[in-house]
Amino acid sequence: MSRCPICSKNYEKETAQLVTRKGNANLVHITCSSCRGHFMAMVLHMGQGLSSVGMVTDLNFADAHKLHTAKPLTLDEILVGHEELSGKKFLEILTLS
Question: Kind and range of the H or E element at 57?
């Protein structure tokens, strides 16, 4: 997690921002100073050290924070979205552009 997975340059510690903390887990957002790529990692403080898992993302810190604090989608919202995306009208809009 010390190097950018996109350009392999070392991260500058100033670009790491805490999105949230819960117990021994920290969700961190990092922006590469070199390529401006974004990376999110869950860093866990374990008994004998740290463990982390991360992913490249297109979210900047403000977007990541906003999505983290947003209310979860309801089942009705998911069903409406599915109907809209799988409908004939949506496909027609896609093919007209």
Answer: strand 49-57
Q: Which parts of the chain fold into alpha helices (H)?
A: 61-69, 75-86, 88-96
Q: Residue 87 carries which DSSP code?
A: S
pTM of the model: 0.72
pLDDT tens digits, 3-42: 898 999 998 888 999 999 999 999 999 999 999 999 999 9
Model confidence over 34-79: pLDDT tens digits?
999 999 999 999 888 889 899 999 999 999 999 999 999 999 999 9
Tokens of 3: 């190097």
The total of other beta-carbon atoms located within 10 Å of residue 1's CB is: 15
Ranges of each domain in the chain = 13-71
Q: What amino acid is encoded at 72 in this protein?
A: P
